[in-house]
Amino acid sequence: MILQSLALTNFRNYREAKIDFQEGVNVLFGRNGQGKTNILESIYYLALTKSFRTSNDQNLIYYQQDFFRIQGDFKTQQGRLHRVAIAYSPQEGKRLQHNGQRVGRFADYIGTVPLVLLAPSDLEISQGGPHYRRQFLDIMLSQASKLYLHHLIQYRRALKQRNLLLQQENLETRLLESWDDALVQHGVVLIEKRLEAVERLDELVKGYYARLSGGGDKTKLLYRGTFQVPPNGHLTEVFRSALQAVRTRELEQGLTLVGPHRDDVLFLLNGKPLRVVGSQGEHKTFIISLKMAEREYLQNIQHEAPILLFDDIFGELDAGRILNMIRSLARIGQTFITTTSPNFFGKMENWETKPAFYEIENGTVQRRESI
Amino acid sequence: MKSDIFPATLQDLIEEFNKLPGIGRKTATRLAIHILKVNPEEARALAQAIIRVKENIRFCSVCYNITEEDPCPICRDPARNQRQICVVEDPTDIMMIENTHEYNGVYHVLGGTISPLDGIGPEDLRIKELMKRLDNVDEVILALNPSTEGETTSIYLSKLIKPLGIKVTRLARGIPLGSNLEFIDELTLSKALRSRQEI
């Protein structure tokens, strides 16, 4: 997927901006606080209809304005055009247009523009709590499968309803069991799809990690459910009896204690938990490998190369190998990179298509032929 | 808009319109001004229609459909199959199903779905009333909306009714007729694929 042009109105520190991008690599450079990440954020917003930095859309509106608007013209590998526009104001909420048509349910649209983001905060995926790993899987799978997103939305709804029910006095067992059924029905699809995806990611991460680290390190990804599914076990039955097994505790705590909302993914490096033994560098290499794996996973399913967003990830680390990887990726899609030191990219040779450079300064964007 | 510039009687009318669902302040004002302009007969007709609806329309004591006569014409119709009950959320759902002319059983209006978030439990719906009607019934068709709450309510009802030895069914979901596969959303298509039938 290629973003050909982007237009921003009142978005973050951009009053009005229109930028044309090229296929391959686009480097956004400038000093800190000038608005580089805001561009990535707007592209992310177009693809996933929300920000990765805030859940409050009001924070995205330019100072003292009352709405923002983002519009992007995308082109698929087959040459199909997608014009996507999202506008938000506190009064009217969020409105999405796809090729001139108003989209009512955003879930129908998600996945149209496949996208993978790599930002410094992604280190939480390997270093933080299970919530970050579930969120990683949910964002990837929601882009890959409308069915997944549907069941995710329904599961969350059922979970909320069931938790509320668990807090009620004199609860009728039959009623609780009805919510069990709803939870299981949707949860089973989530678990099945996640198991499948983690297995696939496991293979892909192995390859990327070895390439990036240049050594014989072995990685492993394991899906950790809140209950064990025995071989030949029927997931629906196992989930239902797992709920029954914790019923007393659930009633005491007023919370649903088992299910995909509590599952985790274990990352192993040479047989040991990365979270325990990993150095900063190893975490970083692992996350980049994981994101590369996500990209390949989405491409294989969508038959469309996802847009890659790299937010300021080239710091002190061994950038050489990563840059080589980006250069090889430049042939099969479109990449956006924010950096304070563009010389890095300027000096590199052997590009199939030379990167395009954009200087960002205080909410303005200038294309630069050379740096 | 500062609204005490209007005479009190007009103000009252605006307030009343404003209470209606989907009517904001502006629309309420526009409607009230419109009433001011129409001739007296038309305004009286509207007022009387509102009063008549409240005086003459009630809920059927059997199925809770809206009706002028109790029981409602559907419940009283001897040609209708009283052994088959279709359970719906609202009276408008009955209208939709009636328009198909495909259903010859009777109905039961539940009045909503179970939703702890909205504080609606089974006792807030007409479930007890439904259970009382099941003595001579062969089949209960659950025609609730395919929302999380609708589905859960269906599961709950089937748990209540099935043990009585009564057949419980629910509406199939799938591809709208006359539509081209290319234009079906992926979700509907994958659901239809999952519940495919042998021909």
Verbal overview:
The complex is a heterodimer of chains A (371) and B (199). In chain A, 42% of the residues lie in helices and 24% in strands. Chain A is α/β, with parallel strands linked by helices and 371 residues long. Helix content of chain B is 42%, strand content 13%. Chain B is globular. Chain B has 199 residues and is α/β, with parallel strands linked by helices. Chain B has a four-stranded parallel sheet. A two-stranded antiparallel sheet of chain B has the order 1-2. Chain B has two domains: 49 residues, Orthogonal Bundle (Helicase, Ruva Protein, domain 3), CATH 1.10.8; 122 residues, Dna Topoisomerase Vi A Subunit, Chain: A, domain 2 (3-Layer(aba) Sandwich), CATH 3.40.1360.10. Chain B is built from eight helices and six strands, in the order αααββαβαβαβαβα. The interface between A and B is medium-sized, with 24 and 20 residues.
What are the main properties of this structure?
heterodimer, A: 371 residues, alpha/beta, six-stranded antiparallel sheet, 11 helices, 42% helix, globular, B: 199 residues, Helicase, Ruva Protein, domain 3, Dna Topoisomerase Vi A Subunit, Chain: A, domain 2, 2 domains, four-stranded parallel sheet, 8 helices, 6 strands
Structure summarized in a few sentences:
Chain A has 371 residues and is α/β, with parallel strands linked by helices.
Terminal Cα span of chain A: 27 Å
Summarize the amount of helix of chain A as a percent range: 40-55%
Write down the oligomeric state.
Answer: heterodimer
Q: What's the overall average pLDDT of chain B, rounded?
A: 91
Number of helices of chain B: 8
SS class of chain A = alpha/beta
Report Rg of chain B.
22 Å
Number of helices of chain A: 11
Spans of chain A of at least 5 consecutive residues whose pLDDT stays below 50 are none
The level 1 CATH classification of the largest domain in chain B is Alpha Beta
Spatial order of the strands forming the largest sheet of chain B: 4-3-5-6
| Number of distinct beta strands of chain B | 6
Which class of secondary structure composition applies to the elements of chain B?
alpha/beta
- Largest interchain contact: A-B, 24 and 20 residues
What is the name of the CATH topology of the largest domain in chain B?
Dna Topoisomerase Vi A Subunit, Chain: A, domain 2
